[in-house]
Specification:
The chain has a 5-stranded mixed β-sheet with strand order 6-7-1-10-11. The protein has a 4-stranded antiparallel β-sheet with strand order 5-4-8-9, with no helix packed on it. Strands 2-3 form a two-stranded antiparallel ribbon. The chain has one domain (4-464): Tetratricopeptide repeat domain (Serine Threonine Protein Phosphatase 5, Tetratricopeptide repeat, Alpha Horseshoe), CATH 1.25.40. It contains 18 helices and 11 strands. β2 (295-304) and β3 (310-319) form a beta hairpin. By secondary structure, the chain is α+β, with helices and mostly antiparallel strands. Residues 1-15, 17-22 and 112-116 have low confidence and may be disordered.
């Protein structure tokens, strides 16, 4: 006959399972995001965009993250209407999270009560760089629709959203530190942090030069030279070796009459020469590769239990291997090779975003494994079989790293900026050829994204110099 304790444990385990399944599909309950999206990612790496779309898991588990992936993959597949709708849906869901900034803190505080679950059951919040890419891609989709003002709105929102996200993250990190102190695990958090791969602390790791360059370009097109100078300058600060970024910054400084700033830039980058009146500008935005995916890391840690004895615990944590990005691939314009300047290292931004979250992740994990052990020990005191049963259920549900991230983003982004007489140009990138029509006094953007054997691209003329 089933004992009372065993029945209680069975009810407990069943409740946990039902609760988990209400937030997470079965395959993710026993796995993690990088694993369940591996097939779609492999197709994307090969440049098979349609297969990557088809192989993407159902959207029920992570609706916001799924919208981001579907929007990006549709963009690569050339389905711009579908991409626009998915990205707008992601934006709507992200706005709802922005309206409740305390939710993230409340989930951190509930880490003891949610000890039977894992981080995959918590709300997914896009990292700062992911929020920036959401609005950057919406801006590009607006340009596809010849809506320059809509694109500018998204550019402005990108900066606003990231400012809000930074403040929320500071609040969350402060609360995590307080929670670690309350539970006397500060040294344990530090011990885990010291064993993590270092993401580095460079400007490229925390700011998106791709976003700032596009922002500067759109401001320049609309005659807002002040904001153009600021954002070109931000992009140049991230990639100071880029002569193309320097020329863009010097040009708007010249147009705005910033003589002191222009002279300072000329000392480093050489004499600036104003454009001829019949010039046309070609800008190439070249996305390359696929951002590195998070992996799972099982880390053993010795912690005292409720009786003061040291026990070995296993923490399931996400990490990046630190994969370096390749140098920018060249393009050929009318048969002549042109080098591109890298303006964004997305791998580095992804690693930095994880590094900034580590105190929160580690604090929650340590509290969770201790609470899980205490629950198991208490149940074992009354019935060893019950304790083992519940312990096995908890292990199944908790030992999964949270590897959620926007996996379909590019690995890096490079740019080309040059001036030509009005004409029709043939641009060859890999095995693809793109025709770009240059009009007198106008800017033509060529956007392209290369993964494996595939390449997505479009060309658009967007206004005057």
């Amino acid at each position: 006959m089933m004992s009372k304790n065993y029945r209680l444990a069975l009810v407990f385990a069943t409740s946990v399972f039902i609760s988990a399944c209400s937030n997470l599909s079965v395959y993710n309950l026993f796995s993690h995001y990088s694993r369940v999206t591996a097939e779609s990612r492999a197709s994307l790496l090969a440049g098979n965009y349609l297969a990557a779309q088809t192989e993407l898991p159902e959207s029920g588990s992570y609706p916001l993250l799924s919208d981001l992936e579907r929007g990006r993959l549709a963009m690569l597949a050339g389905s711009h209407s579908q991409s626009f709708d998915a990205l707008k849906s992601a934006d709507k869901k992200a706005r709802q999270l922005e309206e409740n900034p305390d939710l993230q803190v409340s989930e951190l505080l509930n880490s003891v009560g949610s000890a039977v679950t894992n981080d995959n059951l918590l709300t997914f919040y896009p990292a700062d760089y992911e929020s920036g890419f959401l609005h950057l891609y919406l801006a590009l989709e607006y340009l596809q629709r010849d809506d320059l003002q809509g694109a500018l709105v998204e550019i402005r929102r990108a900066e606003q959203v990231q400012d809000v996200a930074r403040k929320n993250r500071e609040n969350l990190l402060n609360r995590a530190a307080a929670l670690a102190k309350e539970n006397r695990i500060e040294e344990n958090v530090g011990a885990v942090l010291s064993r993590y791969p270092d993401a580095g602390e460079t400007l490229k790791a925390v700011q998106n030069g791709y976003l700032y360059f596009l922002s500067g370009l759109l401001y320049e097109v609309t005659g807002d030279y002040n904001n153009a100078f600021i954002d070109y300058g931000r992009s140049l600060a991230i990639s100071p070796e880029s002569n193309m970024l320097a020329q863009s910054t010097m040009r708007v400084a010249y147009l705005q009459g910033r003589n002191a700033a222009l002279k300072k830039l000329e000392k480093r980058y050489g004499k600036f020469h104003p454009l001829r009146k019949d010039s046309s500008r070609l800008v190439i935005l070249s996305e390359e590769g696929v951002v590195e995916a998070k992996k799972g890391w099982d880390l053993n840690l010795w912690l005292p239990d409720g009786s003061g004895y040291l026990n070995s615990y296993s923490l399931a944590m996400p990490y990046y291997t630190g994969k370096p990005v390749a140098p920018p691939l060249p393009v050929y314009i009318n048969g002549k090779m042109k080098k591109l300047d890298q303006v964004a290292n997305v791998n580095l931004m992804a690693r930095q975003a994880l590094s900034e979250k580590l105190p929160v992740l580690i604090t929650r994990q340590i509290i969770r494994v201790i609470a899980k052990s205490e629950l198991r020990r208490a149940l074992e005191e009354s019935d060893q079989n019950v304790g083992n049963f519940v312990g096995n259920v908890l292990n199944t549900l908790t030992e999964q790293p949270d590897t959620r991230a926007w996996f379909s983003l590019p690995e890096s982004v490079a740019i080309y900026s040059g001036f030509f007489k009005p004409q029709s140009l043939i641009i060859r990138a890999g095995k693809s050829e793109i025709t770009a029509e240059l009009k007198k006094g106008h800017i033509t953007i060529v956007w392209l994204s290369r993964q494996g054997e595939g390449m997505a691209y479009w060309s658009k003329t967007i206004g005057g110099l």
